[in-house]
Specification:
Blueprint lengths: L23 H13 L9 H6 L12 E3 L4 E3 L1 H9 L8 E3 L6 H7 L16 E3 L4 E3 L1 H8 L4 E3 L4 H51 L3 H53 L2 H20 L9 E7 L9 E7 L4 H10 L1
Antiparallel strand pairs: 1-2, 1-3, 4-5, 4-6, 7-8
Helix pairs in contact: 1-4, 6-7, 6-8, 7-8
């Protein structure tokens, strides 16, 4: 299947989509959106749930959500949470309040923890493995590698990502121009098909039954040409359209990453995004063309035949050449 974000192909693991790697940046954005859209509902208090000693224990509905702890509290537990010295500065939101996602994102806890050591913060960047790691990962697996503080390479990553997205985005207009050219070519080609069909039918009306058989033969040939030519155009259209979607998706994602991503988000995503940018820049389909084709019906009275189809195909160097040729005609 294809990744909905970068359009790159991937294989689903044996344990299903749960086995696919997670994107912490996207997960954070989804969590913020979820919190911002919470209506006046009543989830159960997490603290009361932890303290419950039996199924019959009373668990009050939650009225408040702590952004730092990512826990829901009832009024009583929220009051105690406020009074504790360690959590006195935590930000509590009343469930049901209208909160802007951008406000939540700014205040959302920025520290990201290691996937292998969930209680350890990601704070080191391994230059050899191109990974963001925690101190435990460094001690166990990366102590012989060249590593640095996670903040040090961020400036270079930002420059690299800005350069990559600029190159990818520059191909968007070319893709759109190529798609428009293919649409024009398809329309013109179908006009030629319709014209040839009209000429065929006008001529066959004069030759009755014998012409009818010949007419069917010509129409079958015409349809075959039309199908083949249409398939060529649509195949080219599909390639360019896919490239356009991939470039737009990549551009939108990187812009969001540069605008809202944390240092950790950028460090984790930089390598993969750079590789994807190189793939997109390598697979340039903006010069994809199927050339110029013309279909005409040729009547040969001197040979006492009923006429035949003539299909001509020319490959032009550029769209400009095609426009010049049409202007001359």
């Amino acid at each position: 299947m294809a990744c909905p974000l970068c359009r790159n192909g991937l294989t689903i693991p044996e344990n299903g989509v749960e086995g696919l790697p997670s994107n912490l940046y996207v997960e954070k954005m989804l969590r913020v959106r979820e919190l911002a859209s919470v209506e006046a509902q009543s989830p159960l208090c997490n603290m009361c749930t932890y303290r419950a000693t039996s199924e019959a224990a009373k668990i009050d509905p939650a009225t408040t959500y702590c952004l730092q702890c990512q826990e829901a509290f009832c009024e009583t537990c929220a009051s105690g949470h406020w009074k504790q010295k360690a959590t006195r500065d935590h930000i509590l939101y009343h469930i049901g309040d209208k909160v802007k996602p951008e406000d939540l994102y700014v205040q959302y806890p920025r520290a990201s923890n290691c996937d292998k050591h969930v209680d350890k913060a990601l704070e080191i960047y391994c230059n050899e493995c191109r990974l963001v790691i925690c101190m435990m990962c460094y001690i166990k697996d990366h102590n012989s590698h060249k590593c640095s503080d996670m903040q040090e390479p961020i400036h270079e990553f930002r420059k690299q990502m800005a350069t990559d997205v600029s190159g990818v985005a520059s191909g968007v207009d070319k893709c759109q121009q190529t798609l428009q050219h293919l649409i024009t070519e398809k329309k013109y080609f179908h006009e030629q098909i319709n014209k040839a069909e009209s000429e065929i039918r006008d001529n066959t009306k004069q030759l009755k039954q014998k012409i009818d058989r010949h007419e069917e033969s010509l129409l079958a040939e015409l349809k075959s040409i039309e199908q083949k030519r249409t398939n060529e155009i649509e195949a080219a259209y599909g390639e360019v359209e896919s490239q356009l979607a991939a470039r737009q998706s990549y551009t939108k994602y990187v812009h969001k990453m540069l605008e809202k991503g944390t240092a950790c988000d950028i460090a984790r995503a930089a390598s993969g995004l750079h590789d994807r940018a190189n793939e997109l820049l390598t697979s340039d389909v903006t010069k994809r063309t199927v050339g110029y084709a013309e279909v005409t019906f040729v009547r040969e009275e001197d040979k006492k035949t009923f006429g035949k189809l003539r299909f001509s195909k020319f490959i032009f160097v550029s769209i400009v050449s095609l426009l010049i040729a049409l202007a001359i005609v």
